[in-house]
Amino acid sequence: MKKIANYLIPTTSVVAFVFAIAAFNNSHAATQTPSQPQKPEMLTTQAIPAAQPVDLTRAAERALPSVVHIKYVQNSKIQTVEVTTDPFEDFFSDPFGGFFGPRQRGQGGTQKRQVQTPKRTATGSGVIISADGYIVTNNHVVDGADELTVTLTDNKEYSARIIGADKTTDLALIKIDGRNLPAIEIANSDNVKVGEWVLAIGNPLGLNNTVTAGIISAKARTLGANGVESFIQTDAAINAGNSGGALVNTNGQLVGINAMLYSQTGSYSGYGFAIPTAMMNKVVDDIKKYGTVQRAMIGIQGGDVKSFVDAQKEEGKEVDLGTMEGIYINKVVEESAAEEAGLEKGDVIIEVDGQKMTKFGDLSGIIAQKRPGDKVTLTYLHNKHKQTKTVTLRNEQGNTKVVKNADLDVLGADFREVTQQQKEQLEIQYGLEIIKVNNGKIKDAGIPKGFIIRQVNDEAMKTVEDLQDIVKEASTSSEPVLIIKGVFPTGKKGYFVVQLAE
């Protein structure tokens, strides 16, 4: 379980021991809403009615069957690692007689050793969004898994496969083979209000099917944990194991996917954060239609106006931008939608499509729901004068085309892992041999049959899956290029540049 800035913790529960003991503090959420204020002239003639308790039982009953337990398994693997050479080891030899396995000589004061990684298991949560088995969870719940097992509230188990995942929003879509599953009803998170009651449902600390209650504490919160953020903040208790679970309203409708907790101890201490359904719906639709998320970009770098002004004050500078709310533009990216629209450094975006922008999370939340080619209307202050422009959003590659994950087919070649004989002959530990070249990017780049690929974009290529992953990643990046390094059958080193974009 990784920590972010020592405070933000993805809420996946890692199973490290067979037995685990946890201490829990009981707390009671408030069960009454404040009475409505009365007009002054009515107070002397009409008694204030007693506050009515909030009944959350219906919401829990409706939502609980839709929240599942996810078990993550990463199998043990053999990996080659570099270790610093002991200068006395050659003289004294290996006192353990090869107990730690065979070792291979490296260079520059290091040795390469093969180690076996331990089997890892972890648990998280997910939410059924369709009766035919589509489940939404967090990317960090499923990332790197060799096996995923989904358990429903009736204890039925299913094997799950990953349909798609997006690290930038920390969302993933997985699928189980089931019918007539209890899909949750999805509400529009844009309509939730601060102070509204919500329930967090998941499997925290190994306590399956747990429901906690609280209110929405804030909206459009950014934390610097993911690439795209506009979190719903809640004081409903969220702990390790809640990741991917449901944040629901008093009608039992999904408004967010629980993702993180804010803590100095690793356990819940006041605030949790959920990814809004408005963002979730867009990510799910993109994964289903295109295989990857269509990321729309304005092309600016900046932050909250207040944060900028406060930073300037600390340096003894006085700044008057004409407002204390909005998005301060610190940089306009070249050849971006913002540059084309004429925005400049120092401008302040105050509205997008008529919606007021008070902080950067407001902007992130809106743009995360858009695709390249969509138009948005920006209202901004330039030298404190209000201006309005309509801009066409672009993708990371600077155009408005649909970005799709490239498959190995785009390379037009067949690959296999190098044999033991090739390793010994060429003195290499890994690599992928090109065993056939057809029409495609490999042929276009002039890479011949027999060339052994050792690195692509500085990543080691040990399996065909490694190559598949790097091709997918590069094809949707701002620079869709593969820098391929390797060796020819003669042992001569070489490198090639493969352009994935048309």
Short description:
By secondary structure, the protein is α+β, with helices and mostly antiparallel strands. It has helices at residues 57-63, 89-92, 139-142, 277-290, 305-314, 337-341, 360-367, 420-426, 441-444, 464-475, and strands spanning 8-10, 13-15, 67-74, 78-84, 103-105, 110-116, 120-128, 134-137, 147-151, 157-166, 171-176, 197-202, 210-221, 231-234, 246-248, 254-262, 271-276, 300-304, 327-332, 348-352, 355-356, 375-382, 385-392, 413-417, 432-437, 452-456, 459-460, 481-487, 493-499.
Structure characterization notes:
Strand 28 (481-487) and strand 29 (493-499) form a beta hairpin. The chain is built from ten helices and 29 strands. It is 15% helix and 34% strand. Mean pLDDT is 83; it is low at 1-7, 13-48 and 87-107. It is an alpha+beta fold. It has helices at residues 57-63, 89-92, 139-142, 277-290, 305-314, 337-341, 360-367, 420-426, 441-444, 464-475; strands spanning 8-10, 13-15, 67-74, 78-84, 103-105, 110-116, 120-128, 134-137, 147-151, 157-166, 171-176, 197-202, 210-221, 231-234, 246-248, 254-262, 271-276, 300-304, 327-332, 348-352, 355-356, 375-382, 385-392, 413-417, 432-437, 452-456, 459-460, 481-487, 493-499. The strands form five sheets. A six-stranded antiparallel beta barrel has the order 12-13-14-17-16-15. A six-stranded antiparallel beta barrel has the order 3-7-8-11-10-9. Strands 18, 19, 20, 21, 22 and 23 form a six-stranded antiparallel sheet that branches.
